[in-house]
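Lab channel / #folding
Pinned by the channel admin:
"Please post every new chain as: sequence first, then the structure tokens as a reply. Keep commentary short and put observations after the output so the thread stays searchable."

First post following the new format, from NK:
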Amino acid sequence: MNKRHFVSVAGMLGIILCASFAGGTAFAESESDIVEGPRVHWDYSSTGGPRRAITEYIWRFADFIDRRTGGNFTMEIHRGTLSKPRANLDGLKIGAFQGASFCAAYYPGKLPAHTGLDLPFLPIDSQRQLRHVTHAYYEHPVLRAEIEKWNARFFMSSLLPLYEVLGTGEPPNGLDGWKGMRIRALGQQGKAMKELGAIPTNMTATEAYGALDTGLLDAVAFPYYAHKSFKIWELSDWYTSGLAVGSIACGALFNNDAWNALPDQYKALIDEFIDSEIGYELQIATVLQADADALPFFEDKGLTKVVVDPAERAVFAEAVGRPIWDDWVQSMNEQGYDGQELLDIILDAAERYKDN
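Reply from TO:
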């Protein structure tokens, strides 16, 4: 994403937030905006942790449907109290709650095809491109069938920015400096870090701080904003700039039975939110601004900046990325999918939306 575009979305974020705080809300300002309908209440199981950039769209959605229906359609967000993060799919399947957050890398055996968007070094460079690639991929019948096994349907992507690393002790000196480092790096990203000689561990975001604090980990891979949100910086001595291994496929799902029971006007409201200025547009601005805000914070806290040489990173991406993609394709084939078809959907969509 170029600098001019970043400034524009950041400016939009400020304008929208100012309007929201000044007027109470940027929508449903008159009775004519109210959508009539029956009383409905949903419970939403998040993955826990503090309210932060990637969860903002869920909170805004809950406010949106409440206001637009005059309080008749409400959704309460539970931060890790209804279910453990790794059990959210199971809860959706039995209807224990109506909505839930998910990250495919937390349970690759449950959503194997969904891990395609976790592959390292995919040609996805902006949040808008990521949004379109995600929806193009998840709308494919194969992906829909996979999520329907859990009695669920896809709502929105969290649009996680590219991952960087914060760690303790001596910072890595070049790509050879990762050997033996115990790092929280999920799924396919973990495979990339393993190629550098690191020892990847798959754990949820809420577990990372404790593992780093007790010495079970030496480093954590997150987007910058998450390092700040989960206070990884408190225990860290250094941070990387330019490693940009990739993103992780996280988002929100709704229970199919709950969705099917909604009246058409409520379903239309949900679709309206996705494409509104407070849906994806504000989510994009929010995550970009949060990531940008974290950088000077790390510097103020005295963390050493480890700049990854672009040429060295490019060689690493070329040498490691394609073999990991090929391994993933083979793994999908072994599970009964057409792995190459799935990868091609992602790559074709990335090319189609590269200028978004």
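NK: Confidence is low (pLDDT under 50) at residues 1-29.
TO: also worth noting, The chain has two domains: 30-159+248-291, 164-246+294-308.
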